Amino acid sequence: MKYLCLVYLEDDKLHAVRDSECLAASERLRAEGRVVAAEALHPVHTATTLRLRDGTLTMTDGPFAETKEQLAGFYLFDAADLDEAVALAARIPPVRTGSIEVRPVRELDPTP
Amino acid sequence: MSLDSGAVPDDIAATVAALFRRDSRKVLATLIRLLGDFDLAEEALQDAFRAAVEQWPRDGIPANPVPWLVSAGRFKAIDGIRRRARFDAIDGDVATAVEAIPDSAARWDEGEEIADDPLRLIFTCCHPSLSADAQVALTLREISGLTTEEIARAFLAPPATLAQRIVRAKAKIRAARIPYKVPHAGELGERLASVLRVIYLVFNEGYSASAGSSLTRADLSAEAIRLGRLVVELLPEREAMGLLALMLLQESRRAARTGTNGELVTLEAQDRSRWNRAQIDEGVAWVERALAAEVTTASPGTAAVPRRDSPAARFGPYALQAAIAAVHAGAKSAEATDWAEIVGLYDVLVRLQPTPVVALNRAVAVAMRDGPATGLPLIETLLADGQLQDYHLAHAARADICRRLGRHADARASYQRALALARQEPERAFLAARLRDLPP
Question: B50 and B66 in one domain?
Fold first, then answer.
């Protein structure tokens, strides 16, 4: 069985825990063979939300807006830039019925 | 930028200032590509012009100042990064970044790469993943070179809000890696539409400020026209020509559209001798080019219908609106206007852009062609649909038609509704005057 653990933080607490501590923790978990994938994200204002309706793909600045929509799955893509990432994300079928939020992954800073 | 001209000979100071006005955005566009970062490039741009002021009095003005400035900016940026790297803990990352900056002159000297840089800058500033507000602010800051304070003043927004908007947009470009490139043919049409929308937003903000007492802010409109020319020059697509034409034709009426007390003067009542003939001639020439290209690619009789297979190559809503404006521009008076031609153009526009506002404008044109009794039911149907209920011009249009039909009570009710919704002082003054002039 696999479990997805989502990390939520208020804007002013994004850096309350140092990156180096997060890195150390993920390395310990990796060493135990438990981690499939783990990434930190850039803040929500770097997000782009995609919706495909009536054959037209629309892009919106920011995170998903419909509060009734719930997190239903995820993809972790490797792409050269946002245009490539958007093209890949537009192929996720629920883009037609819901929304796909594209968030860039952030490199953790190992400085203690 | 302020140049300290104290110790600099006048002719060199003047040359540098002229170069800054004409070419600083070109230099910036190439520096962003070379350095991969807006902020680094802006700093490098300032450093490059500072170096010019320092070195040109001694060494003379180079034969090709633009490559000189790009080279100086790039050198200063690399130098700065290396100097900072010595004090910085993350040496490795910075060293990699410095190595990634092309070192050989050959790389950035390629004519085609440099020629495309201003387009890359335009498409990145107007990337659809940025909000419309951010696209407008970035375009005016990076492509027009306006200061944050100037943009804030033009949009009646606090400078801190504008600054924050620009900082966030640049942070998104960096973090989400919005590419610095000209879109490929397949997506060019859609991406160009996004660029043209930004330019038209800027124009409209200058032409009819969305709130406040000044109906026009000429500087913003002039800047939008300048941006429109730049896009046509870099990318001679029909819709780009159409937008340039539309802006020129609307701008040509600027002097005539406000009365002595700043009140709005409708197209019908404008003194047409005050229209700017040079702008009309140029606008009409661009409309003809925007539409003529279509005729050569479609068979006779179908010229007005865009080809669906080539979205970037076809004409669209801007060219059609410009064509409508050109018909007005060619008429001696409102009565002498070829309303049949205008209705025909609206028929095509409604198909391309089926919005309630376009349908309203078409209905008004029908009322002019066939008389108010024919136009009224069209407008009332549109109002009944509900989408135009809060649009003051829809109520003003109904009021005007009722007035012509002598239905004064209906006209009064609609003028009052329009007045309650209108936010611009000149429009409010116009509506209030119409209400006063209605017979009891």
Answer: yes
